[in-house]
């Protein structure tokens, strides 16, 4: 079986990074961080109002549909007394359809 040591320290070389290079890396990381923040903030400035407007439109549609269904949007779970016309008895005619019968 072949074994390979990927963490072999004997072949590793230590190189001292100059001070200006470390400052350059830190400045680059800072610039990338600021750019990511600016992109996220600009997306938020665009998307947050769109989401709020979409939610307001959906709420308006829901209230309109509830009113059309005869439900009070302010108190949708209110228990209303049953009307005399809306009884609890279901009256219908039932007929058995035989397996060979045409519908």
Question: How would you summarize this macromolecular structure in one to three sentences?
Answer:
This protein is mainly alpha-helical and 103 residues long. It has one helix at 19-68.
What does this structure look like?
The structure is a single chain. Helix content is 49%, strand content 0%. The model has no long low-confidence stretch (mean pLDDT 86). It starts with 18 loop residues before the first helix and ends in a 35-residue tail after the last helix. The chain has a domain at 38-73. It is elongated. The chain has 103 residues and is an all-alpha fold.
Question: What class would the helix/strand composition place it in?
Answer: mainly alpha
C-alpha Rg, in Å? Answer: 36 Å
**What count of helical segments does DSSP give?**
1
Mean pLDDT: 86
Write the H/E string, N to C: H
Considering DSSP H and I runs of 4 or more, what fraction of the residues is helical?
Answer: 40-55%
Oligomer classification:
single chain
